[in-house]
């Protein structure tokens, strides 16, 4: 009689490295809610495949320490991909991935598609060609929060008030000037500039000009 218990198996694990990073791929398809734990010494994964019903589990005890805060992950329908930061940067390549030296586990293989030899000096620091880092998320408490962007340089409104107090600009039309400089800075309200050109014009119009006296008529010849 067959047991109804689900058999747990180790998934295929591929790995490659750079001087500062480890590239680890766990081939476990259709795992909806994987349990992933990364510490400075270990990566642990447990997950159930929705398509095959296989229960996957693997624990990788690293040869040296890693930095969970600087590491990233990308989980898709075919595999779990990790870019794990080494704690010690710029050192020689690790001779192996795991701490145990009694032979490589049957599930662990070299990822030749991402491997670069250490003596390939011109390319060894480059990331794997097929990795789009925009798809990766942080593993150590979340990634860096967004910087909010710079939509239209809207924060320059205060500059308008400052410029408004700079009188005596010789009738300069600020709106026309900014238009010549490429359409003006987005979000800048030119109504706050105080209308330097109009003020100058109003000042000229408001001066009291002496009335012109009529020239005496020339004597009749």
Strand and helix layout:
Blueprint: E1 8-9, E2 12-17, E3 21-27, E4 35-38, E5 42-48, E6 55-61, E7 66-75, E8 80-86, E9 108-110, E10 137-138, H1 157-164, H2 174-180, H3 196-206
Parallel strand pairs: 1-6, 2-9
Antiparallel strand pairs: 2-3, 3-8, 4-5, 5-6, 7-8, 7-10
Structural description of this entry:
There is one protein chain. With 221 residues, the protein is of the alpha+beta class. The chain has 3 helices and 10 strands, in the order E-E-E-E-E-E-E-E-E-E-H-H-H. The protein has helices at 157-164, 174-180, 196-206, and strands at residues 8-9, 12-17, 21-27, 35-38, 42-48, 55-61, 66-75, 80-86, 108-110, 137-138. The strands form 2 sheets. Strands 9-2-3-8-7-10 form a 6-stranded mixed β-sheet, with no helix packed on it. A 4-stranded mixed β-sheet has the order 1-6-5-4, with no helix packed on it. Residues 141-170, 183-188 and 195-203 have low confidence and may be disordered.
Brief digest:
Helix content is 12%, strand content 25%. The protein is α+β, with helices and mostly antiparallel strands and 221 residues long. The protein is globular and about 45 Å long.
């Amino acid at each position: 009689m067959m047991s109804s218990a689900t058999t747990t198996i180790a998934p295929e694990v591929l790995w490659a490295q750079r001087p500062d990073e480890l590239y680890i791929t766990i081939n476990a398809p259709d795992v909806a809610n994987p349990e992933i734990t990364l510490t400075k010494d270990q990566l642990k994964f447990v997950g159930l495949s929705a398509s095959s019903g296989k229960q996957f589990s693997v624990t990788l005890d690293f040869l040296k320490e890693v930095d969970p805060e600087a590491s990233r992950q990308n989980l898709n329908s075919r595999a779990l991909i990790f870019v794990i930061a080494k704690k010690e940067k710029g050192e020689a390549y690790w001779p192996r991935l795991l701490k145990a030296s009694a032979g490589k586990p049957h599930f662990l293989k070299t990822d030749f598609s991402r491997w670069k030899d250490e003596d390939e000096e011109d390319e060894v620091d480059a990331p794997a060609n097929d990795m789009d880092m925009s798809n990766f998320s942080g593993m150590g408490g979340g990634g860096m929060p967004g910087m909010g962007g710079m939509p239209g340089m809207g924060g320059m409104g205060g500059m308008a008030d400052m410029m408004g107090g700079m009188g005596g600009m010789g009738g300069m039309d600020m709106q026309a000037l900014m238009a010549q400089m490429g359409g003006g800075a987005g979000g800048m309200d030119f109504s706050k500039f105080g209308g330097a050109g109009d003020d100058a014009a109003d000042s000229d119009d408001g001066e009291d000009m002496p009335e012109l006296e009529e020239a005496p008529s020339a004597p009749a010849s």
